[in-house]
């Protein structure tokens, strides 16, 4: 049996496959479903200072090969997630990943400070949501990113990761990599959904989600190649100085294998979890182990980052 365990941000993960912040991880009941599944960690919904209803419904729509959403960060407010870390830790042995997406710079500082007293193992800063009405995607404002990370790093006493929006231009990758190098970020999770896509239903002659006139974040198989490109480019620029987590379009063990080949240490499942439910974790872990066995690999470190280019 191939070993697909991983160490992420200094924390041991039984396997390298776990849930992404976002799908079905808002309430304690939902988090307990993840805790009882084969997900190797319990990632919680990105939280804000105050509880949020999120955007008007319909705000999520399944597509043949993925999804579009504009949830708008519906969450119970950070205090509830701090409480959940204590409850979850007392019942389950898995690492807990908190995700923080404060709407303002000062909110993030308050929330990060408060999470020092939580039972979370890792904190993922999420400046990559494209869905907050009236706000830009903060991960595209490099000055904000740099300033936020500087101040967050000062207060955060937990291992820190960051979930980034997708980038498409090599210059932007280089600028972001320079920012990441300046701060105490242990991993980059790439990518959040591809923002502001538009799905049209020709029968109804209508968009499929309500917020923002139908524009929303694209997920699933449509975005796998952009996710892979983001993981690979950051791996080229940062090497093993910062770990990488692949997120976006992983539906099979072979997909997970591709992300590890590109440099990822771990894989998060988003849309596939939304669509298939908790069985996706075990299935994808088993498929990854079988694929590695066929290739003769014993652990993910045997091939991580070893993607070949063509001379
Ligand atoms: C949302 O709640 O709108 C999705 C969160 C995210 O994309 O980070």
What does this molecule look like?
The chain has 311 residues and is α/β, with parallel strands linked by helices. The chain has one domain: Aldolase class I (TIM Barrel, Alpha-Beta Barrel), CATH 3.20.20. It is 35% helix and 20% strand. The chain contains 9 helices and 16 strands. The strands form 4 sheets. It has an 8-stranded parallel beta sheet. A 4-stranded antiparallel beta sheet has the order 5-6-14-11. The chain is globular and about 50 Å long. Bound molecules: succinic acid. Succinic acid binds next to loops.
Structure described in brief:
This protein has nine helices and 16 strands. The chain has helices at residues 28-36, 78-91, 105-115, 142-155, 170-182, 224-238, 253-262, 271-276, 279-295, and strands at 6-8, 11-13, 17-19, 42-43, 60-63, 66-69, 96-100, 122-125, 160-164, 187-190, 194-198, 200-201, 206-207, 215-220, 243-247, 266-269.
